[in-house]
Automatic annotation (TrEMBL):
EC class (word): transferase
Entry keywords, A to Z: Methyltransferase, RNA-binding, Transferase
Keyword Iron-sulfur: no
GO MF entry, a single one: rRNA (guanine-N2-)-methyltransferase activity
Gene3D superfamilies: 3.30.2130.30, Vaccinia Virus protein VP39
EC number per UniProt: 2.1.1.-
Sequence ranges assigned to domain THUMP in this UniProt record: 43-155
Domain of life of the source: Bacteria
Protein name, per record: THUMP domain-containing protein
């Protein structure tokens, strides 16, 4: 068993920890925007292909105090880099430096570590591997906070949100990891319909279809950095892939999406088709204000990511959220609804009381994932009568 750190978005740490537990990882500990865990090679391979809410899976190589560039160089050179890759591979260093003025900038710190790696290879082999900042075989993460330095090798490479199914060029697509996190935070696991009536390029719908059928999200992804590690086991990778595929299941309900932009619906269909889940979806070029209740399948969940109002006037965004509330109340009784938004004032116009408010970030924007229970008529009346009964109950006089 080796120690790893899986990074994620703020608010998804416990979701990721649960995913890791289901994969069989051990000694799982949620951190801030990350989860520490231990896994064997088979579990590491499965984690890269199967985790829905991980961004990178890092293997820590060193963690020590460094107070200047010379100490960073020494720490970097003490790591046995030739254990991990040879000088035929390309590599890149992703550096973050915070509250450490001795290192001037992340670029300066990355250059010192690069010198240490290059010098080690040159000392032992007479040549060094080349840097490739855009598409490296090997990615190395350097993090310096004050005088604490950690150096890790990235098993994933590019972020795991790059599933490999996206085909279009939508201007502002939702991050796949965030979409999967919203689904896993909801109470929907494929036990009813899934609806996104502001679906854009269909990320929530595609991730929902992958979740409902238990398809590993990164089976289509062409490359992972660990494939360039010296200890990569091709047969074990194939075994991990086959085991994940054997756990797929059927989905008995429907996934509905709509958007007022025809181009968005076209892109959503291409992405779903690329992911192999288009047959589970019904997509329409439709303004949500003209929605009708889905006729097929059991009630399930409505999950949407509406505009937050950066390009709309306050009166326009308020009206939009009021119309969203009307659509939910008129057409989706019996469903649960989940709305992600950074605009707290606009969400008040929905006209429903949230059952839950979960903090999340969509890029730099601090958001809330709001949960609403949309009762059908009988449940609504029962709940209303109960509330009236509680309000009419005699209250104890204050002494």
């Amino acid at each position: 068993m080796q120690a790893y750190i899986a990074t994620t978005f703020f608010g998804l740490e416990n979701v990721l920890a649960k995913e890791l537990s289901q994969l069989g990882a051990k000694n799982i500990k949620p951190l801030k925007r990350a989860v520490r865990f231990e896994a064997d090679p088979l579990q590491l391979y499965k984690a890269n292909m199967g985790l829905r809410t991980a961004l990178h899976i890092l293997h820590p190589l060193a963690e020590e105090k460094v107070r200047n560039a010379d100490q960073l160089y020494a720490l970097g050179k003490a790591i046995n880099w030739m254990r991990w890759f040879n000088n035929e591979a390309t590599y890149a260093i992703r550096a973050r430096v915070s509250q450490a003025p001795e290192f001037k900038s992340p670029l300066f710190a990355a250059l010192k570590l690069k010198d240490a790696i290059a010098d080690q290879f040159r000392d032992f082999t007479g040549s060094r591997p080349n840097i490739d900042r855009d598409n490296p075989d090997i990615e190395i993460h350097l993090h310096i906070f004050r005088d604490r330095c950690s150096i890790s090798i990235d098993s994933s490479g590019s972020s795991l949100h790059r599933r490999g199914y996206r085909r279009g060029g939508h201007a502002a697509p939702m991050n796949e990891v965030l979409a999967a996190g919203m689904l896993l935070l909801s109470d929907w696991r494929g036990q009813g319909n899934l609806v996104d009536f502001m679906c854009g390029s269909g990320t929530i719908l595609t991730e929902g279809a992958l979740l409902a059928t238990n398809k590993a999200p990164n089976l289509l992804r062409p490359n992972f950095s660990l494939k360039h590690w010296k200890n990569f086991d091709k047969e074990l990778w194939s075994q991990a892939r086959m085991e994940l595929m054997s756990e797929e299941k059927s989905f008995e309900h429907r996934i509905y999406g709509s958007d007022f932009k025809r181009s968005a619906i076209s892109e959503a269909f291409k992405n779903a088709h690329s992911a192999g889940v288009a047959d589970l979806m019904q997509l329409e070029n439709l303004d949500f204000r003209k929605l009708k209740r889905p006729e097929e399948g059991e009630p399930g969940a409505v999950i949407i990511n509406p505009p937050y109002g950066e390009r709309l006037k306050p009166s326009q965004i308020g009206r939009l959220y009021a119309q969203i509330g009307d659509a939910l109340k008129q057409h989706f009784s019996g469903y649960s609804a989940w709305i992600l938004s950074s605009n707290r004032e606009a969400t008040k116009e929905v006209g429903l009381r949230p059952k839950n408010r979960i903090p999340l970030y969509n890029g730099p924007l601090e958001c809330r994932l709001l949960q609403y229970d949309l009762y059908d008529g009988s449940k609504y009346l029962e709940k209303k009568r109960q509330a009236e009964k509680e309000n009419d109950a005699p209250k104890k006089e204050e002494s």
